[in-house]
């Protein structure tokens, strides 16, 4: 039988999502009472969630100061992008081997949705469409382990991607189109190389646009 989700888990998930989508920006002071009111819960599950968030690197708890949304360091950005590049390059290679015409249609639909969002200056849709397209590729790879690990990485990647989504702009979607072309052609090496370069371009843009990031 399905069991109800514990309140502390729901509060944790809500806070992570608020951080990812910018509702709680990097560096913001997190006050338990304010968060409890915002989420409509008592302070206890908020306190528990904050300690878990600290353990996972989403929040910093400073003695005598309280909790603050973590400011990602350049090293953290580099490491996550490098891991993402490894996982998703292999996913792209496998996707090129396994893709069906129906899968290609879905990829192109996702690509169109992302480009439309960019042209409409809709940041939320751009970030969501980017994450969805990458997830489609990893699922298409047929490797459940890669898909699971990529999903874990992608949540934090959405957080890192927001500040550079428009900086990457149309070029990012041109790279996505080239990736889909390579997958459709069954060119495993090209698909992997394009995905690897795509991730490195995002990392480089982050360093260009966020010079104040933690070091």
Written overview of the protein:
- The protein has 215 residues and is mainly α.
- The chain has 2 domains: 7-69, Winged helix-like DNA-binding domain superfamily/Winged helix DNA-binding domain (Arc Repressor Mutant, subunit A, Orthogonal Bundle), CATH 1.10.10; 74-209, Four Helix Bundle (Hemerythrin (Met), subunit A).
- Helices cover 73% and strands 5% of the residues.
- The protein has 9 helices and 3 strands, in the order H-E-H-H-E-E-H-H-H-H-H-H.
- The chain has helices at 7-20, 32-39, 43-55, 74-98, 101-119, 123-140, 144-161, 165-185, 188-209; strands at residues 29-30, 59-62, 66-69.
- It has a 3-stranded antiparallel β-sheet.
- A hairpin with a 3-residue loop joins strand 2 and strand 3 (66-69).
- Helix 4 (74-98) packs across helix 6.
- It is elongated and about 55 Å long.
- It starts with 6 loop residues before the first helix and ends in a 6-residue tail after the last helix.
């Amino acid at each position: 039988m399905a069991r109800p989700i514990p309140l502390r888990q729901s509060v944790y998930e809500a806070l992570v999502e608020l951080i990812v989508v910018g509702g709680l920006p990097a560096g913001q002071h997190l006050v338990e009472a304010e968060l409890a009111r915002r989420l409509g819960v008592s302070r206890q599950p908020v306190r528990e969630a904050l300690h878990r968030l600290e353990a996972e690197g989403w929040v910093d708890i400073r003695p005598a100061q309280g909790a603050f949304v973590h400011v990602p360091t350049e090293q953290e950005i580099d490491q996550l992008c490098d891991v993402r590049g490894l996982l998703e390059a292999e996913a792209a290679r496998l996707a090129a081997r396994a893709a069906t015409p129906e899968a290609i249609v879905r990829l192109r639909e996702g690509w169109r949705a992302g480009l439309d969002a960019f042209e409409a200056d809709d940041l939320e849709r751009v970030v969501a469409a980017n994450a969805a397209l990458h997830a489609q590729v990893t699922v298409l790879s047929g490797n459940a382990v890669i898909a699971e690990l990529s999903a874990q990485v992608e949540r934090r990647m959405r957080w890192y991607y927001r500040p550079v989504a428009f900086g990457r702009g149309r070029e990012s979607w041109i790279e996505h189109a080239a990736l889909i072309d390579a997958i459709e052609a069954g060119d495993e090496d090209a698909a992997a190389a394009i995905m690897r370069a795509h991730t490195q371009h995002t990392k480089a843009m982050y360093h260009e646009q966020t010079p104040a990031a933690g070091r």
